[in-house]
Amino acid sequence: MSYDGLLINTCSLIYSAKDKWGNIAGTAVVTGVKCRIEYGTRLVTDYKGEQVVSIATVFFRKNAALEHDTLVRIGSRDHAIAQIFEEQDSVAVHHKEALIT
Question: What does the H/E/C string look like for the chain?
Answer without folding.
Answer: CCHHHHCCEEEEEEEEEECCCCCEEEEEEEEEEEEEEEEEEEEEECCCCCEEEEEEEEEEECCCCCCCCCEEEECCEEEEEEEEEEEECCCCEEEEEEEEC
